[in-house]
Design a protein that fits this description.
Helix content: over 70%
Shape: elongated
Number of strands: 0
Strand content: under 5%
């Protein structure tokens, strides 16, 4: 039985896209490229007629690695010439990154095969 609905992967794609846009706006093109790649992978999973759970598991694992304590992803500070805009970008980054973690953790729970 499939535990992850297609709409959940679509939600993941939307959050990843939003995050990539924020990162670009905050002059962090390196992480924007990484997140854009994950966005592209999520869109490929959604586009397939048959659900590819292996690709989703791999994507979820790769995204979770970004939240590792040794990853710079959790300590990103975005930049902007306007200090108010910079503050808004960083607040949006904080919230979007938290939303991504929530979506990924939910997916992670759904794709883990429980052994009885």
């Amino acid at each position: 039985m499939q535990k992850v609905e297609k709409w959940r992967v679509e939600e993941l794609a939307l959050v990843l896209n939003e995050l990539a846009v924020l990162l670009r706006a905050g002059e962090n093109s390196e992480w924007a490229s990484v997140i854009s790649h994950y966005h592209d992978e999520s869109k490929k999973i959604v586009a397939k007629k048959e659900f590819d759970s292996d690709s989703l598991k791999k994507l979820v694992t790769n995204i979770m690695n970004c939240f590792d304590k040794n990853s710079s992803f959790t300590n990103i500070a975005l930049k902007h010439v306007n200090p108010r805009e910079e503050q808004k970008l960083n607040q949006a980054l904080y919230l979007t990154r938290a939303r991504l973690l929530t979506v990924i953790r939910d997916m992670e729970e759904r794709i883990i095969e429980h052994i009885h």
